[in-house]
Amino acid sequence: MNKIKKKDIRSLSLEELEIFLQNEGEKVFRAKQIYSWLWQKGISSFEKMTNIPSSLRVTLDEKFSINNVLVDKQQKSIDGTIKNTLKLYDGYIIESVIIPTKNRVTSCISSQVGCSLDCNFCATSLLKRMRNLNSDEIFDQVVFVGEQSKLYLNRPLTNIVFMGMGEPLLNYKNVMNAIKKISSPSGLGISQRRITLSTSGIPKMIKKLADDQVKFKLAVSLHSASQSIREKIMPFTKQFPLSKLLESLQYWYSKTNKIITLEYIVWKGINDKIEDIKSLISFCKKIPSKVNLIEYNPVGNLKFQQASREKVNEYKNLLENSNISVTVRYSRGKDINAACGQLANK
Ligand code: SAH
Question: Are residues 57 and 74 in the same domain?
């Protein structure tokens, strides 16, 4: 039977699975066992469910599929970064990256196939949005990269960042469900403190995150604290002005008490003037935050150019002089187009 036609068993809640088993005349407690195989062990076929009677395994296989993501290609950078090209059940391709450092193994995962936003400097935005990832497809990336980390690096995954393809807050429900499965003790058990969601800044959804009392960290791709410049580089922000973004971040802080990371690239001739630094400082003073100055990774023919090291240092020094915490992040995996904003570049 064609795999796609069958429903993915992972789209069922535990209760729905229990009802299914009951209707089949099976024991209801099996639902928890099956759930554990799916969400704790991340297995890829019913055959591997060794504590489930074989007759039930056959029934499950007849009724359902497990549409795991499949590896299409793996590329290793000279700096140890590994980029995985993963194939979805319907043929779409996404990318997940694993970034090892001395103390951490970070997995950068995707939330959508392509992206509906129009950040002019990003490779993924050139793809447009094909579809949202299901929660199991987000979950699978973490399972896959986790196994890869153990295999190649002999270390478990320590951190997860939603900085791959797509805008996670425009796939809210599936991203939240995936994070639940990734972090819960009946799932992969990775603490939410080790998870960061990066958003280009959708105020309404940031408020929703705050209302939902999530425990993970929030990063916002600010890139400019001047509305007119931000609109030029991220045209969709016309709908979401900085004043609304700031208000949503203040709301987030009031509800969660968690400081926000502001991601910021300094581009030559775009946001490298002293006024740009001053606007950023004044933005930061309005919301408990730290700034992450990201190195720009060139994308195809796009005319964006990373500002000089001196400029970046000037930003850093002036921010620090104003008591704003700042880190500079140099990119990883550039040689294999695995760096931020390069996914889907080639
Ligand atoms: N849509 C989300 C998450 C994906 S992008 C967001 O915008 O935050 C992850 C990060 O990579 C964002 O901060 C984004 O602005 C940045 N980015 C995009 N293109 C880049 C590039 N070419 N070089 C460096 N960073 C880039």
Answer: no
Q: Which of 106, 110, 111, 119 to mutate to test the pocket of ligand 1 (most atoms within 8 A of CB)?
A: 119
Number of CB atoms found within 10 A of residue 141's CB: 27
Within a 10 A sphere around the Cβ of 311, how many other Cβ atoms?
19
Beta bridge partners of 217: 196
Q: How far apart are CA 129 and CA 167, in angstroms?
A: 10
Entry pTM: 0.93
For residue 327, what is the domain's CATH number? 3.20.20.70
- Exactly one of 108, 119, 122, 340 is catalytic; name it: 340
* Tokens read off for 119: 């950040």
Is the domain of 170 the same as that of 147? yes
Residues 257 and 202 in one domain: yes
Q: Tell me the C-alpha distance between 135 and 181, whole Å.
A: 9
| Residue nearest atom 20 of ligand 1, based on CA coordinates | 341
Q: Which of 120-124, 143-147, 168-172, 186-190 tops mean pLDDT?
A: 168-172
- Per the structure, the count of domains in the chain is 2
The per-residue pLDDT for range 13-53, each reduced to its tens digit, is 999 999 999 999 999 999 999 999 999 999 999 999 999 99
Looking at the fold, whether 249 and 203 belong to one and the same domain comes out as: yes
Find the domain containing 42 and state its range: 3-65
Atom of ligand 1 nearest to the CA of 299: 22
How far is ligand 1, taken at its centre, from the CA of residue 91, in Å? 25
The reply to whether 207 and 239 lie within a common domain is yes
